[in-house]
Design a protein that fits this description.
The chain has a 6-stranded mixed beta sheet with strand order 5-4-6-3-1-13, covered by helices on one side. A 4-stranded antiparallel beta sheet has the order 10-11-9-12. It contains 10 helices and 13 strands. It folds into 2 domains: 191 residues, Ribosomal Protein S5, domain 2 (2-Layer Sandwich), CATH 3.30.230.10; 177 residues, GHMP kinase, C-terminal domain (Alpha-Beta Plaits), CATH 3.30.70. The two termini are 19 Å apart. The longest helix is centred in the last third of the chain and has 25 residues. It has 379 residues and is an alpha+beta fold. Bound molecules: alpha-D-galactopyranose (GLA).
């Protein structure tokens, strides 16, 4: 597609990526997380198809298209982008089949893929929202979040939580979301960080979340919760088990279950402490919790990698970086850094050189701002 204007679309959906300040791998454990939607987005252009039940979706990034008939079964194929399309259409047909019809969609993006800022959820949520608005399906945000999670679980094979989808649907400009993943209660918190800013540094180590490691952590936490419940029946999620409870009952768990559970409990506490510190504009203490979070993700949850560890360790040498940690599912992707605005440029230069020397890999800085969540523009 040379020019999107030629496509003559009816609606455009802007579906953002997300950051998470702290609270990693906590969503599927029922705890608290602090995500926000960002200015890096996937753009999905939609129009109804002229031939009624034919659907065509084109990805500009992959320079590929998928064409299918709406009344044919959408099967899981493999783990590339087309599978996300199949998954969305499969679930929408099951719940709103009679209201759907053929459509065309062109997808463009300035959201880096595989870097831990949730390009996959942005794509899935964008598609659901676009089809919802194009065919006036009247699906609520919570149901769209639910469908998106089902696509990721059953078509992509990642048994993820719903933090990303919540940030995408409920994000607001300059607001951080405190989301309790057990009660689904949301609180919007001001993100006045001046003179600091968040800077993402992409290791360019491409994490494939569908790799079994993410699901392994989910399962380890599930079995830890089951064992914890035998002692305390009131426990509804692992994040609600206190650190003392986990330590006192260490013998219940396998070595890995113990480490995962201890991390989850500590990280959940860090999120609540961080919320208070951010509200009090105490960024120095919040930065220290970011470092603690990374330590836990590295040593207890074991989802970091040497490139992420290097970036976090390196940042400790500079007082103007208040905190740094890996962000997202892990095994690659980005670090999130809280850094004094004036120092961002020279720091990027410095750390990129060090990173290149060490790993012979390019480091990609991603400057972000906190923006509104998903949005539909009608033409
Ligand atoms: C991925 C998942 C989220 C969450 C994070 C880790 O982004 O999609 O649900 O579990 O990893 O915090």
């Amino acid at each position: 597609m040379k020019n999107i204007k030629e496509f003559n679309y009816k609606i455009l959906v802007e579906s953002p990526g997300r950051i998470n300040l702290i609270g990693e791998h906590i969503d599927y454990n029922g705890g608290n997380v602090l995500p926000a939607a960002i200015d890096k987005k996937i753009f999905l252009y939609f129009k109804k198809s002229l031939e009624n039940s034919t659907c065509k979706v084109t990805s500009i990034h992959y320079n590929e298209s998928i064409t299918f008939e709406l009344n044919k079964e959408n099967k899981k194929i493999n783990s590339d982008w087309k599978n996300y399309i199949n998954g969305v259409v499969y679930y929408l047909k099951r719940s709103r089949g009679s209201q759907l019809d053929g459509f065309e969609c062109v997808i463009d993006s300035n959201l880096p893929v595989g870097s831990g800022i949730s390009s996959s959820s942005a794509l899935v949520c964008g598609l659901i929202k676009g089809l919802n608005d194009l065919f006036e399906l009247k699906i609520s945000n919570h149901e769209m979040i639910n469908i998106s999670q089902k696509v990721e679980h059953n078509f992509i094979g990642v048994k993820g939580g719903f933090m990303d989808q919540f940030a995408i649907f409920f994000g607001e400009k300059d607001k951080i979301i405190l989301l309790n993943c057990n009660s689904l209660k949301l609180e919007m918190i001001n993100s006045k960080l001046s003179p600091y800013k968040f800077l993402l540094l992409n290791t360019n180590v491409n994490h494939t979340l569908s790799s079994s490691d993410y699901n392994k952590r989910v399962n380890e936490c599930k079995s830890a919760l089951k064992k914890a419940k035998n002692i305390d029946k009131r426990l509804t999620c692992l994040a609600n088990a206190s650190e003392g409870f986990i330590i006192n009952n260490e013998s219940l768990f396998t070595k890995n279950e113990f480490k995962r559970a201890l991390y989850v409990s500590q990280e959940n506490t860090r999120v609540l402490k961080s919320t208070k510190l951010i509200k009090a504009l105490n960024f120095v203490e919040f930065g220290k919790l970011m470092y603690k979070s990374h330590e836990g993700l590295k040593n207890l949850y074991e989802v970091s990698c040497k490139e992420l560890d290097f970036l976090v360790d390196h940042s400790k040498k500079y007082n103007y970086v208040l905190g740094s940690r890996m962000m997202g599912g892990g095994f690659g992707g980005c670090t999130i850094n809280l850094i004094k605005e004036d120092n961002i440029k020279p720091y990027i230069k410095l750390v990129s050189e060090k990173y290149l020397n060490k790993f012979q890999k390019k480091l990609t800085p991603i400057g972000i701002s906190i923006e509104n969540g998903i949005n539909t523009i009608k033409k």
